[in-house]
Amino acid sequence: MSEPSNSGVGYRVPGAGSDRRLAYLLVAPTVAVLVALSIYPLIHVVTLSLQVTSGGASRWSLGNFARLFSDHFFLAALGHTLVYAACALTLEFFLGLGLAVLMNNQLRGRSLFRAALLVPMMLPTVVAGVVWRLMLNPNFGAVNGTLRSWGLNTAALTWTSSPRLAMLSIVAVDVWQWTPFMFLILLAGLQAIPQEPYEAACMDGSSAWQTFRHVTLPLLKPAILVALLLRTMDLLRVFDQVFILTEGGPGFATETISLYIYRTAFRFSDFGYAAAMSFVLLIVTNIVSAFYIRVLQAREA
Amino acid sequence: MINLRPLLRYPLVALATLVALAPVYWMLTISLKHEVDQFAVPPLWFSFTPTLEHYRDAFLTRNFGHYLITSTIVAVCSTFCALVIGTLGAYALARFQMPRRLDRKLSLWILSTRMFPPIVTAVPLFLMMRDLGLLNTRASLVILYTGFNLPFVVWMMRGFFLEVPRELEEAAMVDGDSRLGALRRVLLPLVAPGLAATAVFCLIISWNEFLFALVLTQTDAAMTLPVGIAGRVTQYEIKWGVMSAAGVVAMVPILIFALAVQKYLVRGLSLGAVKG
Amino acid sequence: MTAIPLWIHEPAHKVFYLRLGRKTDDERSLAMELSLEPSGVFRIRYGAMNSALKEILSSDHRMRSVSLSILSGMLLVALIPGLLSCQRDPNAKSLTLAVNSGVEGDALKQAALDYEAQTGVHINIAEFPYANLFEKELIDLGARSRAYDLIMLDDPWFPKFASQHLLTELTPLLQQRGLKGPDEDFVATSIALGREPYRTGSLYAMPYVGNSQLLFYRKDLFAKHNLPEPATWNDALAAAKIISELETNGAPGGGKIYGYVMRAAQGNAAVADFMPIFWAFGGEMLDANYQPAVNSAEGIAALKFMLELGKYSPPGYASFNADEVGAHLLQGTAAMSINWPAWISSFNDPAKSRVIGNMEFATLPGAKNPGQAEIGNWLLAIPRDAKNKDAAFDFLLWATSAEQMKRSAIRGNPPTRKSLFNDPELVAKFPAYPTQLRSLESSRPRPRTPHWNEIENVFGIYLSKANSGELSAEDAMNQANTEIGKILERAK
Fold first, then answer.
1. C116-120 long-range CB contacts below 8 Å, 24 or more apart?
2. What is the pLDDT of residue A289?
3. C86 has pLDDT over 60
4. Which range marks the domain in which residue B79 is found?
5. Residue B212: CATH number of its domain
6. Contact C82 B77 (CB under 8 A)
7. What is the pLDDT averaged over residues C421-428?
8. What domains lie within chain C, and their CATH numbers?
9. Helices and strands of chain C, counted as H and E runs
10. Closest residue in chain C to residue A63, using alpha carbons only
11. For all residues of chain A together, what is the average pLDDT?
12. ipTM exceeds 0.90, yes or no
């Protein structure tokens, strides 16, 4: 994360003894809570994942990890999650960037529009799921109803119940809900860009596209990376909307990794295997976030 | 800048607004429609006879009123706890230098805990709550949401503190105030709007949380609104009206809150990384 | 509008004010008072600003501390009741039931209200959709959080709970009340479900709703096309073909009538609709050595037959659940289906049905083997760690008594007592009862294994994939067999 600009060392009090003690004292509760609710559970995940329970007794084993590689369902769920994340991220990024550029002009009622775009993003994800279950219902949902009233044949458009369209449907719902997020962050980034580089580019006689490519994008890069990082993390953990919209179906077409872990743990009571899958998900998430943070830091250096 | 002609710009903006709002509006109409109108073909977007029967059904005959109370209590308590703990931590990280850049490392570590997918810790936290005998209590949700909100509070408040010149506090300290006295009397009032915005974000995060509320609650005693709504969704025959009514009620406070902190929205959404 | 919350201590109760108005000294400002009384009750009052409040608010010095007290206000308003409510209900005269949301759970909910009125025992209901009820019960019983005193179980879940010793044995409780065992009146196939091992073991659950599958068919259409009541699956297929081909605009409103409708959504739905075909064709899920055998020649033939029937089912049936199937039958757009008796009463309800008087119910067709329905009883059981076992058992006995079960039957749930299937009043209301009893007595449970939920999940996924055209019947059954094998292997 980028430091706020005025965080110079000069603003800090050189640590006098009692002040230092006070500092530790003040930060201790935060650290304690996070150790209890994040670090301890992580250690627990690792120990759980290394235990296999059979016949009522558990023993140490790598069996859960071995099982991962032969479990098509796990691999499929991981695949679905990655496909889902990649599709939604790409769409949200380009749509959000487009909207941000569009709105980074003099525009009457811009604040009104911004407020309107807040609505999908602030909805509880469960409610967003409900909204789209209503909209996508093949028989009386508003989407098919409206298409039908335009004279289109909607017999094949069964959305979340069709193996072919289900993934598309849940991606579309995510794009609907989270494009505003990209838009807001990128718009803020655009507005923070000073005027001078543009004036310089204008004098060089660059075309609009060249200016965008060589001036705007590089300056927007930090905001883009932050937005992509946060969205990626959220996409990799997707659970709520899918739970409401499809519960992983039809068949296994939209089962995401979070859903599969949930099912394994809380329906099949196989905590060890769920922990092993959690561990893999954590590694994947860490690799992705480390990649983004490296890019961010490379820029700062 | 790419210079789109305004003539092209407005229809695009209007279209995006329409796409963003139409589904929510549709849910609102479903919640207000008699059942016959819900199934009408073609869909009735505007002309129907409104009714409040689904709201009555949800909140008087069903237990949604109770879920609403639970959601409120859990969101408010966890926000409060996270604010108190996190603001103190943020103050320490913003104002003190620790040896070997420990302050910076701590800040990044605190942020990184927020990157964990919740399902990863769901199993151990479930087992932990079970061992503490806290399953199916509001307290368990308060504790967990405090933990979720904490990194967020620390990063937001740290950013706000760093923006306030240190000289102001020093002046107070010269006047005989203690460090914490200066924090309370000088610094906190100055960052009060930021504190309020942070609080609102925490409320939103807690209010919307679903996975842990689903896992940790077994009866109406501790069930939150999202879990209550989800419980009606997958039913045999789906009560669309009741579900929509509850959805509208779950949405309204969040939207009001979100509009109230529009100014800090971008900063809140990006964990303080981008200033809007 | 500004909202300034203010925290004031009062001896009697805690108050939290919210001022709604633009200016601090605005006489017209409204104050909203949220007060929390010692009993934990919230009260909300609206009124004009009182002068004391105004004085505090208008004082500039205090304004700052007022805005800082937002948080302390929030804490005290919410934390106190929040933590108070965490306490467990110490009142022994109170029971918590976990029920299925739907007609079966509704009947028990109604019964609970009656019981409460009669005895004063307060009953809390925790209601969940079918898909989540099992998880909730397993979590509660497995984690011993003791939230539930009585649970409703679908019978295939029972082996899981019984094998983990999570339920209370009922025979000692019966004996305490001077009874030797469960009433002889219960249908043998129903009471057998609550025993572990099946049929012969100790009793851990009592049957409450006596569902078993029936073949639903449209007698008007069958008569019109001179079709006999299907005795074999081939009859059913032939009838489905004829109706699909001839009734292209026979549905109310002029649409096509599909010859058959089934639910092939993954999970419980696909498996429930497939098992009777599978059994009739001679398939067995587990062989004598407890090894999976779904990919036997018989099993594959059964799935191929299901896909044949699917050709006469409405498009998208591979993701249908009970609600879609019910809608097709009620709207008159499908002519035949395997379904549960819970739907029967809906067909004569003019508010729901467009096929009043035209639906007939039969026992399931056979093929190589005689037709056998899948049994799907709802059982009542008491968690081993329940807080109020005795009170829960009293309620359980009361609810499964002939008198109360009759009331549940009138509410649309098939009973599990022979006497009620023969009760003249009930038979007059539900003419299918004799058929239902025949179906129930000859019915068969799903394989009794503690791993049924996992097996059903996997098997359902492959059945759904075969029906949606993603996999051939052979591939689906072979892959399902491998996956079921893995589940059983892990369980060893």
1. C120/C93
2. 85
3. no
4. 51-269
5. 1.10.3720.10
6. yes
7. 94
8. 2-84 (no CATH), 94-212+376-441 (3.40.190.10), 214-374+448-491 (3.40.190.10)
9. 19, 14
10. C490
11. 84
12. no
